[in-house]
Amino acid sequence: MTLVLTNDDGIDAPGIRSLLKAVSQLNGNAIIVAPQAPHSGCGHQVTTTKPIHVQQRSTVEYAIGGTPADCVRIALNHCVSDAHWVLSGINAGGNLGSDVYISGTVAAVREAALYRIPGVAISQYRQGGRAIDWAIAAQLTTHVLQALFARDWEPGTYWNVNLPHLDASEPIPDIVFCQPCTQPLPGNYRIEGDYFYYAGEYAKRQRDTGSDVDVCFSGHIAITRITL
Fold first, then answer.
1. 43-57 average pLDDT score
2. Domain span holding position 218
């Protein structure tokens, strides 16, 4: 099984190394095709009006001078002829509810779904500015991928996974399949003269009961299946 690994935090981010550690416990060959630089919040932006630099670091690692969606396009059309899954992450921060329209992490697996390749976006919710324990994130990701690889995949869909912020002493949380929250992100701004400074607090966002935001904020692994 050939797995394409990408992200939106950049090829040298700790999250993608944590993802690589997670898939090393599974039966698959991982090929990293990820952005050279961070592209957090770029959504499904693609590059069509300028050249994209591709640095082949090894036979299984490519650094792409473009967005996450660019990475998947290049991976599936030029670098990997037999991709079975596209995995994106592990993002440093949640991608819940309406975040999926903004997230480059999620856009990568949406692009894969357009190519009829199953994909999983994995994000690690960060609570209160606390540091992420990437070893825990890798452990939870292995657990999640084992569950998703065993399920039937429906063409035209992709998985969005959000891991809760746990301490090392806490047990592996429940996996909850749920619906994405449809509430908006906080729209608070601080105004100084003619300038508006965003002041929304992610942890105080509104949430639908039982939605991915509610599930993840309550300490469980939230998984949503999203349809193109």
1. 98
2. 2-227
